[in-house]
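Quick start: read one record
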Amino acid sequence: MVTLYLIAGLAVILPVAAGPLLAYGPGRRFARSAAAGRIRAATGGLVAALGRPGAAVTVVLAWSAAVVAVFWPIGELAHALEHVVDWPVLHWVAPRRSPGFEDFNWLYTALGDRYPLKWVTVAGALVFAVLWRRRFWIPLVAIPAQFVLEQYVQAIIAGMVDRGHPPTGLGTYPSGGIARIVMVFGTLALFAALTWRFTTRIKVALGTGVLVLATYEGYSRVYVQKHWLTDVISGLMFGPALFAGFALSVCVLAGVTRKASPRALEPAA
């Protein structure tokens, strides 16, 4: 029982520490890398050729296809590890749960369910539509789109892997609850950053907050035994991976990325 409390604490402390480290370390290096420059050039070319809406749709569809291609074999690996990892964890957690803490985790894990996040999505879309005034249609379209995107991409991967669920719950691979939290709250944080001029520290704090919500959601899903452990680990990778492409498409649509100049699109001599 005490060990489960310690793990719960780590599920909060580790993402609080990891968020800034990732942002100021690998995140900053990637933003300055040649790969990031090539992505900016590619999206600029798409904008020049297709316009911002067409480029945004192309980016999100291509990225989603890549996410499916990556997480399909990861799902097969998770399925192969079910008897080695998932069943031992399930049997270890079951007798160590306490009634009061279990009630709290049942309450928290509902945060990742579709029903409450639908209302968060609708409210966020309406609020940012008002704030964006003449460009109201961008948050009004983009914020609900993340909800639909996560649902269908996750359903495609779950259908391809078809690994079933633990006998104590109906959670599938990868954890949709974690991915929904990342997508919904990550999108709201993104639009907040695009609406107001936040400092880097505030942006990092917003991203870290989303990471904490998602990580503890993963812990709660294992604690109440709605998901296999490998579903949760995969969800913690799947959610940010899908969000990265969606965030890029939103930046393309909102005009954060630069349009390539006609000269840059000319073939090299």
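Residues 2-260 form one domain.
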